[in-house]
Amino acid sequence: MPVYLKLKSPRTRILLSLLIGFFVTSLYATEITVNKASSKIVNEIYVVNAIFKFNLGKKPLEALENGIPLTFYIEVEFEQPRSFMWAKEVIRHNHNMQLEHLPLSEQYVLTNLATKDQFSFKSLEDALLKLGRISKLAITEKKRIPSDKPLIGKIRSGLVIESLPAPMRIQAWLSSQWRASSGWHEWEIQP
Amino acid sequence: MIGSRRSLLITCLVFISMLATLISMSNAINDSKDFGKLFSYLLITNSLGLLGLVYLIGRNIKHLLSQLRERRPGARLTLRMVTTFILLAIIPLIIVYWFSTDFIRRGIDNWFDVRIEKALTDSLDLSKEAIGLRMRELLKTTEKIAEDITESTQSNINMNALDLSNLRGVIPTTVINNFDFDPSKLDSMRIRNGAEELAILNKKGRVIATSSTQIDIVPNIPGESILLQLRQGRNYIGLEPIRDSGLFIRALVTIPNNLNNKTRMLQALYPIATHINELAENVQGAYADYQELAYLRKPLQLSFTMTLTLVLLFSIFSAVLAAFHSARKLIAPIQDLAEGTRRIAAGDYGKQLIVSSSDDLGFLVQSFNEMSLKIATAQHEVDSQRSYLQAVLGKLSSGVLTFDSQLKLKTANVSANQILDTDLAPFQGGRLTKLPEEETQLIAFYESIEPQLSHHSGDWQKQVVLFGASGRQVLMCRGTALDSSVEQGHVIVFDDVTALIQGQKDAAWSEVARRLAHEIKNPLTPIQLSAERLRHKYLSKMEGSDADTLDRLTNTIIQQVGTMKDMVNTFSDYARPSQIKPEPLNVNPMIEEVATLYQQMSKKVNIELELDKALPIIEADHNRLRQILNNLLKNAIEATEDVHQPRVNVLSKTMQSSGRDLIEIRVIDNGSGFPDDLMDEIFEPYVTTKSSGTGLGLAIVKKIVEEHGGIVRVENNNDQGGSVIIRLPIVMENHNVHPINEARKNII
Question: What is the H or E stretch that residue A126 is in?
């Protein structure tokens, strides 16, 4: 009885509603995480390997199934830490991948927007797995990076809202499912 | 003005910018690719633009509210006009908006038709079915090729993975292999079965052998999931887009091989006929577009509604701003007129306003300017006349006072201040009743003129007698009531006729004395001579009582004639014109000398002197001044005859009055004092309190004092007796002129 009475109070009900809302939202939220990231020099070129895990929320999935291509950005930065100042950006690299669903072939097609390379997958999981495997992503030539100081490598990924059709963008800005980002993942780059 | 223009320019720029961005945004929503990229920026720009407009409106509202609070002229009219303008603009806008959003919603809903959707879905299913049939056939074909490969492979198969890196650019058109398989067979299999590409892959998906129609292309490697499916023993067939080449059918089957248990896979890529490919692409494209559009139905409605809302807000805000601007522009001349009127009401005549338009308001402003100019001219004339009048009044010897209808003092000229011995400036604007409250010596003046002002509507004339510090003062007042439509009130003109009356009296008395002396003195000598002759001729001849009688009678005649001669001489002195001979004189020794003389004559009286040792030398006639002292001391001693302890004090001191240095001589006695009823005429001839005497003593004193430019007055002491006060200038300005008026002016 006392519990019932407490639940009937407006403040408790609002709090409960907010908690449930948050829980439900988190169930459908888009999650992008970086499991691993590193860089190395191959043939005098800095390349980055990374493994992301993409879990698309309800809204992006719905859009994808309804023929809206989704664009993901993969942003890599090399920074040079400085004392008493913010780090100096040495190089920044953007890499965009587009994921779309073809209704005729019922395939998920992943397109590298820079090279136009396409990869077809029967399932979304396979496509997202492929999307999350960044292998030997060329960043810059070694000679362009100062070799005497240690650097910090940073990588992150997320959805590009601006690539959505214009009418969708307003909703996308307001929804956490669309604005999801992995956040920066950092690693050290020794000279 | 510059600020206003700049503000208008900024507003116009904001307006044009927002209009442009709204048009761009509308295009962006209509899926224009160029504007689509800028959609977000356009939305932000428009939102900021709207915020800018809201800020401008807020400033205008704040300005208007402050004007309303301060009750500025035109503020209420501005509010009314702005409200009217806004209502006129908003109501049709909201109606249009309402219908527009409804049309948008209905219009977008009408894009979608269940039958079209069904047709598209069916088309897609049909395409899938058609391609599916083909795919199943091609899967069987591929399985057959795999079996053929198995059969064709030599027993000692040694399949090793190719290094694909060596293939790029140098790949042969038919086959590359490094195992015991006739390469021409794979090529011929590909050609025979119409495949675009055939590739033998190992378990890990690496290419072992390949045959392709393209020379310089790397074999299209299947994905990990397909390989996994193969490894699980399930063949794969799928429709896939290949870069720049349209749709292909990819088939992957396991090559049967029981020799060394090494799994080999055959991948075949089959092209789809061009026209089928096109049709399939079209069906897929149309379906995808429709599906996308259907999915975007709500966001599209939202976006269109939002754009329309932005347009509505932009229109409303622009209308509100325009309303403020228009109202301000319309009200500005009215505010200027109100301000100009206020300035004129405050006395700032001649205010000219800027005629900024040639319409009715401009005509009104022009008329105001003309009116203002005329008022200023008239005011200037009034001021000139007033200045002239004030100058005339200032130079008048008569005092002039003006009162309004409520008996408040309006003006008082310099002579009025001098005559009344009061600065009347503080009383200007105040009621007449204040005058006697603060200036008690003017009570008689107030009591005399107040009834005239309150009850008299015509001209009046009255003589007023005042008693001030300078003694008795006779004013001749003439008043008139101002009863015009412009001005109502009273004017009083008054003159101090004290000196005039006194002069007339003095002149009359002088004439009487002169004639009396002349008429009496002439027969006195024959009378005296006759009496002396009678005495001389008949006294020696008479004896006894007759001789005594003659002696007594003639002595009486001779003695009385002598007395009459003295009296006549005194009259002559009084009537004689001024003939003083001023010389430097120290008054103190003369006072001491006269006092000593009288002290010896009247030892009963105690004469005390209090003389200022620093008394300056004055210019005076020795004899005449001695005569004054004689008369005063004689009078004082005579006044104390009946007093138990008679006492006479003589004081001398220096003082200042009206900026002039004076000496004051006071003769104070403790006698009977001066009767109150004689105070006004004590200095007139034949006025005396004594049973004997000519009654000319004080009259002569007064005459001599006035001849010296001084004044004399009497007063009764607080305790007992009376005082005679003489004030003489240290230096006589002009001793040949009878200085009565000058003395009155300068010595008080």
Answer: helix A124-132
Domain boundary among B496, B512, B534: B496
Q: What is the edge-to-edge ordering of all strands in the sheet holding B711-716?
A: B606-611, B647-657, B660-669, B722-729, B711-716
Which has more pLDDT, B171 or B496?
A: B496
The count of CB pairs under 8 A between chains A and B is 103
Helix axes B39-69, B297-345, angle to 10 degrees: 30
Give residue limits of the domains in chain A.
Answer: 2-189
Whole-number Å distance between alpha carbons of B29 and B45: 15
Percentage of residues in chain B having pLDDT higher than 90? 6
Q: What's B736's domain CATH number?
A: 3.30.565.10
Q: Is residue B80 part of a domain?
A: yes
- Distances from the Cα of B502 to the Cα of B293, B508, B571, B572, B688, angstroms: 124, 10, 18, 19, 18
pLDDT for A178 beyond 60: yes
Question: What's the Cα-to-Cα distance from B434 to each of B41, B424, B443, B479, rounded to whole Å?
Answer: 81, 11, 10, 20
Residues of A in contact with B250 (CB under 8 A): 120
Check pLDDT > 70 for residue B222: yes
CATH number of the domain that residue B561 is part of:
1.10.287
Q: ipTM of this predicted complex?
A: 0.72
For residue B13, the distance in angstroms to the closest alpha carbon of chain A comes to 26
Non-local (6+) Cβ contacts of A63 within 8 A are A70, A164, A168, B295
Helix or strand holding residue B454 (H, E): helix B443-455
Instruction: Tally the domains of chain B.
Output: 5
- Torsion, Cα of B104, B110, B111, B116 (10° steps): 170
User: Residues with Cβ < 8 Å from B363, sequence gap 6 or more?
Assistant: none
* pTM, to two decimals: 0.52
Q: Considering only CB atoms, which chain B residues are within 8 Å of A98? A: none
Chain B residues within 8 A of A66 when measuring between CB atoms:
291-292, 294-295
Return the pLDDT at B175: 41
Beta carbons of A52 and A157 less than 8 angstroms apart: yes
- Could you tell me the CA-to-CA distances from B216 to A142, A178, B247, B366 in Å, in that order? 30, 41, 20, 92
**What digits encode the pLDDT tens for the residues B700-741?**
888 888 888 788 888 888 888 899 999 888 875 544 444 444
Domain containing B550 equals 502-575
Residue B273 lies in a domain: yes
Q: Rounded to an integer, what distance in angstroms lies between the CA atom of residue B504 and that of residue B500?
A: 6
B685 and B725 housed in the same domain: yes
Question: Given pLDDT bands bounded at 50, 70 and 90, which one contains residue A24?
Answer: low
Alpha-carbon gap, residue A44 to B364, rounded angstroms = 87
Q: What is the rounded average pLDDT of the residues A31-51?
A: 91
Could you tell me which of B375, B328, B316, B329 has the C-alpha nearest to residue B350? B375
Residue B225 confidence (pLDDT) above 90 = no
Residue A44 per-residue DSSP state: T
| Residues B308, B278 share a domain | no
Out of A116, A121, A171, closest to residue B299 by CB:
A171
pLDDT digits (tens, 9 = 90+) for B489-507: 888 999 888 878 877 877 8
Q: Across chain B, what does the average pLDDT equal?
A: 80
What is the enclosing helix (H) or strand (E) of B738? Answer: none
CB-CB: which of B240, B244, B303 is closest to A120? B240
CB contacts, 8 Å: A115 with chain B: none
- H-state helical runs in B112-223: 114-152, 183-193
CB contact under 8 A, B37 and A126: no
**Per-residue 3-state assignment (H helix, E strand, C coil) for B94-140:** HHHHHHHHHHHHHHHHHHCCHHHHHHHHHHHHHHHHHHHHHHHHHHH
Q: Which residue has the higher pLDDT, B694 or B314?
A: B314
B263 with B412, same domain: the answer is no
Instruction: Report the pLDDT value the prediction gives residue A94, as an integer from 0 to 100.
Output: 92
* Mutation choice for A interface testing from B242, B295, B300, B310 by most A CBs within 10 A: B295
